[in-house]
Amino acid sequence: VSPFKRDAVASGTYSTGPADVASIDWDNLGFGYIATDYMYMMKCDQGGTFSNGELQRFANIELSPSAGVLNYGQGLFEGLKAYMKEDGNILLFRPEENATRMQTGAERMCMPAPTVEQFVEAVKATVLANKRWVPPPGKGSLYIRPLLMGSGAVLGLAPAPEYTFLIYVSPVGNYFKEGLAPINLIVEHELHRATPGGTGGVKTIGNYAAVLKAQSAAKAKGYSDVLYLDCVNKKYLEEVSSCNIFVVKGNTISTPAIKGTILPGITRKSIIDVARSQEFQVEERLVAVDELLDADEVFCTGTAVVVSPVGSITYKGETKKYGGGGVGAVSQKLYTVLTSLQMGLTEDKMNWTLEL
Ligand code: COI
């Protein structure tokens, strides 16, 4: 069953024509929220099956004050991007990876999840319905934000009796205010993002609220973001508030191994494959904070941040600089290979893109 709300399609109440372009300043997109035309909603009852998904006009949603997501944080989110090609067609990047990651997270958070097919079809429908908000080639992308939440009312601590899957979208440019310029990180050694056995490895909403305090303090001191250490040894790199981290030394690129406390980024996974295809040696392992001292380059990866070069890292008052104020050669190479593929500028030999 198509997730399109057929009457909306038939009556032409949303636009799909490439000539119809939203009137916003496409040259100055950052990563701020811009409301678009449509969102996608699908509900699941106690039976555990999602059905009757539909596009709706983008609007505020109604929730019980007692909803599981509001009271006990029973919620997950995803993030993926759509790029417009020169021919006006749209490319999605590995949406089925987001679908399976949501399923893994849902299992951890005691929630039912949409099937991979439901997820991907819903993403396609939402993007097409908001086509006029997809930035023109070279101007940015349409950020797609799927949410899964316990929307049913609970009072005692328990899984919610009803769940809502929702997708909204927003046109975006660069995530960091630095744009494509290198970012400056500070290593946090007191507050932690995740604990063994906790939920650090899934994209639950609480993981992101938990880093706001350290992130705000870092920003107040002029840093772009925070790099977290493991909470047991306080020695091994974990990730940055919103992205994964990679350390380059010679021809070897190392990144913290996925071990339950680190978010398994889809860009992380893709960059590992891209780097190997470019003859780099990639190691997924414990990466000690000391290794930052003799690294040649450091970069972050994520859907929102793409590949962001790191210009400096400060740890216990000492600052190590990378790239001489510019973008390191390895970061630049991997960024170019990945984004060319995502934007449809090079042949997709990996079969990662989905054209709409
Ligand atoms: C993403 O990169 O898509 C994320 O989910 C990170 C978010 C904090 C912007």
TrEMBL record:
E.C. number: 2.6.1.42
Alphabetized GO MF terms: branched-chain-amino-acid transaminase activity
Associated pathway: Amino-acid biosynthesis; L-isoleucine biosynthesis; L-isoleucine from 2-oxobutanoate: step 4/4; Amino-acid biosynthesis; L-valine biosynthesis; L-valine from pyruvate: step 4/4; Amino-acid biosynthesis; L-leucine biosynthesis; L-leucine from 3-methyl-2-oxobutanoate: step 4/4
Keywords attached to this entry: Amino-acid biosynthesis, Aminotransferase, Branched-chain amino acid biosynthesis, Pyridoxal phosphate, Transferase
Biological processes, Gene Ontology terms: amino acid biosynthetic process; branched-chain amino acid biosynthetic process
Cofactor: pyridoxal 5'-phosphate
Main enzyme class: transferase
Family designation: Belongs to the class-IV pyridoxal-phosphate-dependent aminotransferase family.
Name of this protein: Branched-chain-amino-acid aminotransferase
Organism field: Linum tenue
Residues of the full protein shown: 70 to 425 of 426
